[in-house]
Inverse folding.
């Protein structure tokens, strides 16, 4: 059929516009899928390519060993490095790369060389567990059946208020401070939850942790991909062994390198990924005083306690960036007021070093100046007002009486209110 000239022109124009429109729609779809990840895009084969790798010990000169793709460090060597500005920075850099491009998990043998602080805190923790059982407070778990574990929420604040000297001895630990600063920089915010997995306590399901790890797949899909990349660097996960943990007691299960899979926050809910985790996870026995730290995006789960009589007790550390939100509400003013007199006395008696006191301050007081009320709390002599940590350090340096520090700390807290 021969079309008239004007019809040929119309058909020509239509054909010229159809293809660019199709390309444009395709480009939009590609961009949308790149920015907003979907659960149904999770690909087990891609995941396997991410995790089926091996750690080369030569790439990590401070590490003493690699066990099941977990880098193992010696606490004595870490403390020695912490005392040298140059070695400190080198070790921190190595840990950051281990937690990002490396396996995503490190174990530090002998994080506590002295078991005294652990024994002292254990006494308090067992007492708190019994108190909370009687009053029907606490308990529960994010990823296990209620009742399987004994859990103390906000163990950080509860310990500090019960025994500030014990708190100072425990959180004066140089290794905890060093790895926290390595991953999050200064002004990090420590929170802790004491977890006891009793004999017969079943394993948790494989999961990632806070922030996106605590959202449903549908909710996670609403966050753009750059937030999936950001979430892991806002938190450091850690656990200090408060008893010996042979494999039969169920120490934590890990899947090295799994933090590198971008869609992983949604993949943990899928059966095929959980099955893969069950078949390929690794598990390390720990001795009392050892610690493990890992990228919160690493697939992990507490193991089943198959022992007959060991209540596996660990202090779970969730350390948050100054620029993020911690999971737990912590009254850092109350902690500071309780801790300051103890630190002042311990320093006067030379029972702790200045560095240990500084580590305890970092674990308790707020290190970031914001948010605040800039009408009442303007920056003076700098870009930000004095932080709670700054005030406590000044008070210790100038040996303020406890009542003077309390007055200044409460006034500082009032200035931050609207």
């Amino acid at each position: 059929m021969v079309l008239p000239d004007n019809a040929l022109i119309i058909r020509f124009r239509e054909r010229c516009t159809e293809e660019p429109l199709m390309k444009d729609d395709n480009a939009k779809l590609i961009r949308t899928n790149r920015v907003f990840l979907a659960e149904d895009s999770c690909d087990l084969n891609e995941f396997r390519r991410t995790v089926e790798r091996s750690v080369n010990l030569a790439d990590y000169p401070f590490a003493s060993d690699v066990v099941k793709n977990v880098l193992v460090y010696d606490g004595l060597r870490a403390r020695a490095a912490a005392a040298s500005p140059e070695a400190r920075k080198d070790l921190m850099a190595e840990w950051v790369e281990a937690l990002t491009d490396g396996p995503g998990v490190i174990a530090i043998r002998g994080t506590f060389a002295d078991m005294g602080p652990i024994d002292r805190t254990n006494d308090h923790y067992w007492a708190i567990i019994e108190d909370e059982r009687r009053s029907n407070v606490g308990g529960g778990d994010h990823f296990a059946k209620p009742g399987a574990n004994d859990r103390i929420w906000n163990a950080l604040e509860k310990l500090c208020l019960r025994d500030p000297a014990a708190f100072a001895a425990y959180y004066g630990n140089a290794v905890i401070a060093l790895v926290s600063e390595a991953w999050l920089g200064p002004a990090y915010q420590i929170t802790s939850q004491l977890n006891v997995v009793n004999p017969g306590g079943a394993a948790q399901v494989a999961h990632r942790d806070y922030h996106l790890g605590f959202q449903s797949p549908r909710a996670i899909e609403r966050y753009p991909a750059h937030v999936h990349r950001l979430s892991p660097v806002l938190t450091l996960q850690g656990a200090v062994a408060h008893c010996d943990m042979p494999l039969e007691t169920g120490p934590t299960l890990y899947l090295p390198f799994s933090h590198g899979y971008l869609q992983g926050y949604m993949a943990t809910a899928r059966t095929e990924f959980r099955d893969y985790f069950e078949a390929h996870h690794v598990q390390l026995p720990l001795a009392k005083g050892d610690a493990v730290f890992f990228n919160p995006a690493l697939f992990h789960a507490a193991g089943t306690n198959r022992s007959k009589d060991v209540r596996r007790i660990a202090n779970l550390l969730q350390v948050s960036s100054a620029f993020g939100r911690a999971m737990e509400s912590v009254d850092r003013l109350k902690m500071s007021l309780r801790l300051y007199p103890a630190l002042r006395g311990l320093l006067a008696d030379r029972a702790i070093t200045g560095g240990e006191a500084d580590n305890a301050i970092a674990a308790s007081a707020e290190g970031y100046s914001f948010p605040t009320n800039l009408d009442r709390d303007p920056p003076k002599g700098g870009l930000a007002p004095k932080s709670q940590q700054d005030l406590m350090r000044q008070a210790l340096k100038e040996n303020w009486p406890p009542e003077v520090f309390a007055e200044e700390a409460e006034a500082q807290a009032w200035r931050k209110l609207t």
